[in-house]
Amino acid sequence: MKYTRDYRERHTLDDGTLVEFRAVQPSHKAMLAQGFTRLSPESRRRRFFTSKTGLSDEELRYLTEFDGTDHYALGAMLPAGEPDGDGEPEGIGVARFVRSTSDPETAEISIVVVDDWQHRGVGKRLLERIAGAAAERGIRRIRSVALADNPDVRELLERHTEGLEVRRSEPGVVEFTFPLTMPVSEDIFEALFSTLRLVALGSFIVPIWFGEQTVRRLLSLGRKRERDTGDAPDGS
Question: Are 55 and 94 in contact (CB under 8 A)?
């Protein structure tokens, strides 16, 4: 298996920037928290349905301490000393998959890239690797959700992949299920990447770009913290 808990790889982007990809570790909490602050308010709203200003300790534990089988994440960082960086590694993106609790062969894939590193190829490289990690662990389908009245999404998917399953999950919403094989074919990868780009632009009703299951988990942790501390919601 390539994508283990010790996975680490360096890759040069098309613009010549050297980026390191590695499995997320519990020691990366501070880097993840710092990267979150570099998401614009609009990026946070699209991913969380709310203008979160930070991640709690419990949320950071969920995002960095996982089993590596049903939940796995890898990050992209600028190594220390690289041009654009300083004396410490700089986190610039995270990809993860979370296996469905009802179907062990289905998972969500999610990607987040900090705003000032978007459109430089980081997201595409993260997607290649997290799709490979999911396939290594027996994931055979990737689930995504779109507005039912968005014909461009369905046309895009049907053009790129065979065996696409489509169903209406609730009024006005369509659920797409992509087949995922090992190794991940170029057609499937291009369909995933093109669709997730639409998600990042707000075409989907739920923020799959961060991962619906992950968002729900983080929001539930936030509500639990409010109950435990007696803090009132801020209405955002």
Answer: no
**Region 120-141: what's the mean pLDDT?**
91
3-state secondary structure of 190: helix
User: Taking Cα atoms as reference points, which of 18, 201, 200, 43 lies closest to residue 127?
Assistant: 200
Own/partner long-range contacts of 26-33 (Cβ < 8 Å, ≥24 apart): 26/61, 26/64, 26/65, 28/64, 28/75, 28/91, 29/60, 29/61, 29/64, 31/75, 31/77, 31/89, 31/90, 31/91, 32/60, 32/63, 32/64, 32/75, 32/91, 32/94, 33/60
Q: CA 110 to CA 2: how far, in whole Å?
A: 19
Question: How far is residue 18's CA from residue 23's CA, in Å, rounded to a whole number?
Answer: 17
Count of other CB atoms within 10 angstroms of residue 215 = 20
Least-confidence region, from 73-77, 112-116, 162-166, 206-210: 206-210
Work out the pLDDT band at 123, boundaries 50, 70, 90.
confident
